[in-house]
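User: Thermosome subunit, marine sediment metagenome:
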Amino acid sequence: MAQLSGVPILILKEGAERKQGKNAQKNNIAAAKAVAEAVRTTLGPKGMDKMLVDSLGDVTITNDGATILDTIDVEHPAAKMIVEVAKTQDEKVGDGTTSSVIFAGELLNLAEELIEQSVHPTIIFRGYRKALLKCKDLIKDLSIKIEPDDKETLTKLAITSMNSKLITGVKSQFADIAVRAVTQITEDRGSRRIIDLDQIQIIKKEGKSLLDTKIIDGIIIDKEIVHPMMPKSILDAKIALISSSLEVEKTEFDAEIRIQTPGQINKFLEEEANLLKNRVLKLTEIGANVVFCQKGVDDKAQNILAKEGVITVRRVKRSDMEKLARASNAKIINNISDITSGDLGKAGRVEEKKIGDDNMIFISECSDPKAVSILIRAGIEHVVDEAERMLHDALSVVKATIEFPYILPGGGASEIELAKQLKAYARSIGGREQLAIEIYANALEIIPKTLVENAGYNPVDLIVELRSKHETEAGKSSGINIDTGKPDNMLDLGVLEPSSVLIQAIQSATEVSSMILKIDDVIAASSLSKGSQD
Ligand SMILES: Nc1ncnc2c1ncn2[C@@H]1O[C@H](COP(=O)(O)OP(=O)(O)OP(=O)(O)O)[C@@H](O)[C@H]1O
Ligand SMILES: [Mg+2]
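Assistant: Predicted structure for Thermosome subunit:
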């Protein structure tokens, strides 16, 4: 509200709320910190899980930062910005969501203390930017380059990403599956490697145990064979993918056929059936013994195909047709008269199997499939769902590493080392910005601190021990041994993380905390619900 010779001028609509200056900042920081606090206890292998109940009463039990924040309904605008950090992290690299949120919360927490000491937010903001750029350089130096086909290291990275998840005991099996799946669908295009995780189809079915989870060198189609007389399994399959229907063709225009004798109608129907028969037999002529049809297959066509011993599946989704094409190296054909034997795909085995209560078609033993399926089994739904989230992290980490093959020691080792080197850098900057860079370094230590705290050890002692280890070159990879509560070499323990996960985490955490710090005025329009109550 401005004043003009004593008369107030209203610039905002009635009911709008406005917070300014330190008040606005404090309020935003408190909200962002609250979000970070909500996920803090889930970080690391000894982190706890959250049980989330949505408005319909559906329960999710998870340890996954992105899932937790996605499920809880956050109202406050600054809190929403923090939730965005987790989402971005999940989309870009698929892991490290909890870490990025906790780090953002700590950057704001420590900034608040500086603001209390009358350091202007702009200075903090500038210091944070410098610290981020320096950190990225330091990460380059600290990172270890690996060969993208180094399966052993990729497996260790996958296991580290799953260490913190609810389900234990199947980690190495899941890690093997993740590495196999991602390397299988990786395509080399010149010097670039392209990985599209959508080419890994995940099928979840309750029943049996997690140990029965497996990867199929091919695709699973959630459909049944159309005709009971068709074989239930075929070895050495030659697969035709047809996008048009296998039915008696209807003429495109209205035609009138005058029939004088009953013989003529029979002849006409016979002719129609013959046309269809010729089309269908074209498939067997070129050697197809399995047919996937995107549209319908009528009774007549079914009978012919059953007689010929061809497995046929109809109304297959377009996306599944594409996966089948990638898995078996087949071409999707619209006009059957054009099909040749070169268009057929190959699979060692095609069979219908009962999984749980449903029949499904397994197209497996493909020789170099560019799309694969993973079938997740577990006794109950909650476990199947968490297993899927866990697999998502493992697949993402393997993908991220193949695309950018640099890794870092985990268990807080890299954060402690970065903090140490960043503090040395801060001293070279001097002035008030030095303070901001120093608190950035301190904020990085929130990751090892939280890991230790969640594992039930004393963070103060352990962080001091870790810092002193990092004084020497040999101690550079020292992180927390979660089992002993002592510093240990993370490279020796095989606790490894992709560099891209840490780079993305500090990048988005810095961006969002700087953005929140720069806000000194929050103007909120009166909400609709408030308005309607008036
Ligand atoms: N065996 C281990 N010993 C020590 N630290 C470990 C071990 N395994 C994993 N960690 C650490 O746990 C942290 C990751 O924990 P967590 O997976 O819960 O969070 P996140 O990856 O940040 O988020 P999310 O997985 O929910 O997206 C990393 O700092 C990682 O180095
Ligand atoms: Mg993780």
